[in-house]
Amino acid sequence: MTGAGDDPTLQFYETRAAEHAARAGGAPGEELRDFIAALPRGARVLELGCGAGHDALAMLRAGLDVSPTDGAAAMAGLAAARLADAGHARDVAVLRFGDLAAEAAFDGIWARAALLHVPRECLRDVLARVFRALRPGGLQMASFKAGTAEGRDAHGRLYSYPSVAELAALYRASAGWEIEAVTTRAGGSFDGPQGTDWIWVRARRPA
Known about the structure:
Elements: H1 7-15, H2 17-22, H3 30-37, E1 44-47, H4 54-61, E2 65-70, H5 73-85, E3 93-94, E4 106-111, H6 120-133, E5 134-145, E6 151-152, E7 158-159, H7 164-174, E8 178-189, E9 192-204
Helix pairs in contact: 6-7
């Protein structure tokens, strides 16, 4: 593992990027709509794990200044192509979460189905990096697959699989987060349309 990433997980996204992208997309979900509504037009946003760029495009269309990133070069390439084709060309950086070194640079950080791949032993450090990258008063929203112990899915991807209590404790231990909400929602994943419990964390760096 390097850069707080898991090599087999990244390899999955490198080799199956197009297949994964084909199953993503659709209209922005409730959480993304809430995130966009909470930020002023022109707010600077970092997206971690942008995948094929669906959420980045929605945020750009809403007037946010988005910097999309992904840990897999293949996914970053798909995202860059999608944004360019839609008239919102952006550089899409290849960034592993543990290499995030920005300081007070963003008004918001969006991480849908991204930080859930960080090994548990590294998650506290990564959350602290996310905290430091936000400007005072900045908002982050991130989603995780719920569970009881770290493990891999049928495709070999690593997940931290925290409980709500464990995740809230990790946030509090990592930095001075102001946790606004921790909610759960049933949904789907790459493995199928249903059967996944998602945890969403909405938190701020205090002003």
